[in-house]
Write a structure and sequence with these properties.
Structural class: alpha/beta
CATH architecture: 3-Layer(aba) Sandwich
Largest sheet: 7 strands, mixed
CATH topology: Rossmann fold
Helix content: 40-55%
Low-confidence stretches: 1-9, 138-147
Order of helices and strands: HEHEEHEHHEHEEHH
Number of domains: 1
Strand content: 15-25%
Distance between the termini: 34 Å
Radius of gyration: 18 Å
CATH superfamily: ABC-type transport auxiliary lipoprotein component
Shape: globular
Mean pLDDT: 82
Number of helices: 8
Length: 212
């Protein structure tokens, strides 16, 4: 229990929420989840094109894992917003000549207008392994001394589509305790952040009670 409490407290320390969140998000109904921009630092001898293809694959895996997580909790009516189907998101982006390679040159406001949503969920992923393929999770103190226990870092952020303002951000180190693959990682880290997730219905009710 102490270990779990430590994880939760650590998760909360890595979470930022704008003091304008309530004001800017009060009309939010639908959010889009974008593929995550990924940087891979692999020891494999890969060409530039091969590395780019793998980075895109990892970024799409996080997008898919987030949709799966939100879909499961949405069925339990946990959220006050809906999430655009990622197949539709990616199709609309492609129809407007916006690809994984040039997505970062567009503003949040531009992407929201193209996708017809109220806000954007996006993020960055830095990895030295292919998380989507699965990673070993067995604990070994030797791995920590040799630097083999840390796999990278992930940052998830939510931005308002109208003003383009950053509303919420969660950063987390990825290591052997984070999860065995992308789905497991997202499921674990979002569960730790649940009490701080701004669109959680219970969190919003609590804030209204405090305001009154």
């Amino acid at each position: 229990m102490l270990l779990l409490a430590g994880f939760v407290l650590n998760a909360q320390k890595n979470i930022y929420e704008s003091d304008q969140f309530d004001e800017l998000s009060k009309e939010h109904k639908v959010l889009a989840i974008l593929p995550f921009l990924t940087h891979l630092d692999l020891k494999d001898d890969l060409t530039k094109d091969e590395l780019k293809a793998l980075e895109k694959k990892e970024g799409l895996a996080v997008q898919n894992a987030l949709e799966t997580y939100f879909s499961k909790r949405k069925k339990k009516k946990k959220f006050s917003v809906a999430f655009q189907n990622i197949k539709n998101t990616n199709a609309i982006l492609a129809q407007n000549d916006i690809s994984y390679d040039n997505m970062d040159i567009y503003t949040t406001k531009q992407l929201s207008e193209v996708l017809g949503v109220d806000g954007i969920i996006s993020g960055n992923l830095d990895l030295n392994v292919l998380l989507s393929k699965g990673v070993p999770t067995e604990f070994s103190i030797i791995d920590y001394f040799l630097g083999k226990a840390n796999y990278g870092r992930i940052g998830i952020k939510i931005s308002d589509g109208d003003k383009g303002k950053l509303l919420w951000k969660y950063e987390k180190e990825i290591n052997k305790k984070s999860g065995k693959n992308t789905d497991d990682l997202i499921d674990r880290m979002m569960k730790l952040a649940t009490r701080k997730f701004p669109y959680d219905r219970e969190k919003r009710k609590e804030r209204r009670r405090q305001a009154n």
